[in-house]
């Protein structure tokens, strides 16, 4: 069976990483306009780096949970395309092969001048020089609002070929990811949501499984 899975912040919540839209989530404590847009980075790169340096440190200290491990098992038994909106590396550290990071990765740096990418140090600063063009314009390799998510051609193709689409731990508020269930469903896939509660696009799913991902994902995969 061909399966496409989309994961969001909820799958890493039980590893101790903050989600965005919970009442005590990241967007309660930081304004999107201050830390997650190209304009914010142009205005105050130090503030943006501080936000991502702190998240890089927390992600490095976190461990994959049973939901991450269950998806590795799923990949052993099926033709799985794993798409994540998460910028942590918990899928990789669970030994998941071939993870598509549509919103980038904390572990990557990107030159705001020439577009070159390299491995980010634990602590980044806007003074870091690009190893290719030497401009002092190092930014986190993250997709901010108004920027084009990565690997979209490969993702649309996987959604169109999937027999089954599952969204795990994502609130369905951010596009294009929030449109994936509708896209896969129209192309013929059965769509399943695994979440603590109904997402904003819950009506696009044929089936919804409620509960913590560390319990529901291993049960669903078994
Ligand atoms: C659990 C759990 C447990 C908790 N077990 N579950 C108007 C209409 C439509 C679209 C737009 C519009 N205006 C602007 C747009 C486009 C915009 C957008 O969607 N805006 C909306 C807010 C309306 N999108 C973009 O700009 C994107 N780019 C784009 O569209 O490009 C097109 C383009 C065209 C032409 C020119 C240029 C571009 C880019 C979006 C980038 C998103 N970036 C962020 C931050 C950067 C990454 C980072 O810092 O980490 O990505 S925003 C943030 O939200 C982050 C996440 O990846 C993303 C999704 O969040 P997620 O994962 O869903 O987390 P939460 O917190 O929302 O939800 C957690 C869920 O888990 C909840 O449901 C819980 O219940 C659940 N849960 N514990 C199971 N234990």
UniProtKB/TrEMBL annotation:
It catalyses: N(6)-succinyl-L-lysyl-[protein] + NAD(+) + H2O = 2''-O-succinyl-ADP-D-ribose + nicotinamide + L-lysyl-[protein]; N(6)-acetyl-L-lysyl-[protein] + NAD(+) + H2O = 2''-O-acetyl-ADP-D-ribose + nicotinamide + L-lysyl-[protein]. Keywords: Cytoplasm, Metal-binding, NAD, Transferase, Zinc. InterPro entries: DHS-like_NAD/FAD-binding_dom, NAD-dep_sirtuin_deacylases, Sirtuin, Sirtuin_cat_small_dom_sf, Sirtuin_class_III, Ssirtuin_cat_dom. Its cofactor is Zn(2+). NAD(+) binds at residues 8-27, 85-88, 169-171, 195-197, 213. Zn(2+) binds at residues 111, 114, 130, 133. PROSITE patterns: SIRTUIN. Residues 1-222 form the Deacetylase sirtuin-type domain. CDD domains: SIRT5_Af1_CobB. It is found in: Cytoplasm. Its main location: cytoplasm. Coiled coil: none annotated. The keyword NAD applies. It holds the Pfam family SIR2. Binds 1 zinc ion per subunit. Its EC number is 2.3.1.286. Substrate binds at residues 52, 55. The active site is at residue 103. HAMAP family: Sirtuin_ClassIII. NAD-dependent lysine deacetylase and desuccinylase that specifically removes acetyl and succinyl groups on target proteins. Modulates the activities of several proteins which are inactive in their acylated form. 2 residues (Tyr-52 and Arg-55) present in a large hydrophobic pocket are probably involved in substrate specificity. They are important for desuccinylation activity, but dispensable for deacetylation activity. PANTHER family: NAD-DEPENDENT PROTEIN DEACYLASE, NAD-DEPENDENT PROTEIN DEACYLASE SIRTUIN-5, MITOCHONDRIAL-RELATED. Belongs to the sirtuin family. Class III subfamily. This is NAD-dependent protein deacylase. It comes from Paracoccus stylophorae.
